[in-house]
Amino acid sequence: MGWREWLALPKLEIPAIKAKVDTGARTSCIHAMNIRTERRDGIEFVRFDVAPLREHSRFILNCAAPVYDERYVRSSSGERDLRLFVRTRIKVARWSWMVQVSLADRRKMRFPMLLGRTAMARRIVVDPARSYLTGKRLPHRYRDLGLIKRKQRIQKS
Q: How confident is the model over 28-41, as pLDDT tens digits?
């Protein structure tokens, strides 16, 4: 994989999200907004919103998953935050496996998702000089599914 790739999170119903592939980060993280927990049949669930496409920031997906864990994570700025974790399936090209992902505010970050080294262990080799080695077709799934419209080009006269 390259240092940035398009991934899918099918259990969270996210067909495509751009991720920074970061071997320096231990845990994976996704930009989550409006995080709220609830109990269903004795199981704690978390509901949250994700804006998976930077160029379509008003396009929001509503996600829900059982809470897997809650623990402190040291952010890139050195601050410790208590974060909720969910366990979900990640799909990259033709490969798929389970990962733990923390929910955090990443709106100031360039990528809505960070894929950390724990999720990559014994599965992925990263070429830090390359990008999108698994392809760029994945974000087009939003248009193919009719979830977003193609941007109209304005013709200059």
A: 999 999 999 999 89
Based on the number of CB atoms within 10 Å of its own CB, is 42 exposed (0-12), middle (13-18) or buried (19 or more)?
exposed
Enter the pTM of the model: 0.84
Asked if residues 101 and 19 have their Cβ atoms less than 8 Å apart, the reply is: no
- Gap between the Cα atoms of 9 and 50, Å rounded: 11
List of residues 6+ apart from 86 with CB closer than 8 A: 12, 46, 65, 66, 67, 68, 100, 101, 103
Task: Give the closest residue to 14 by CA, choosing from 150, 141, 114, 144.
Answer: 141
Please enumerate in sequence order all residues whose Cβ is within 8 A of that of 15, keeping only pairs 6 or more positions apart, or say none: 8, 138, 141, 142, 145
23: closest CA among 121, 91, 101, 95?
Answer: 121
Secondary structure element (H or E) that encloses residue 141, with its range: helix 141-144
Residue 64 predicted with pLDDT over 90: yes
Q: CB-based contacts of 93: which residues, under 8 Å, 6+ apart?
A: 134, 135
- Classify strands 95-104 and 28-31 as parallel, antiparallel or unpaired: parallel
Q: Say if CB 29 and CB 107 are below 8 A apart.
A: no
Q: CB burial class (10 A; 0-12, 13-18, 19+) of residue 15? A: buried
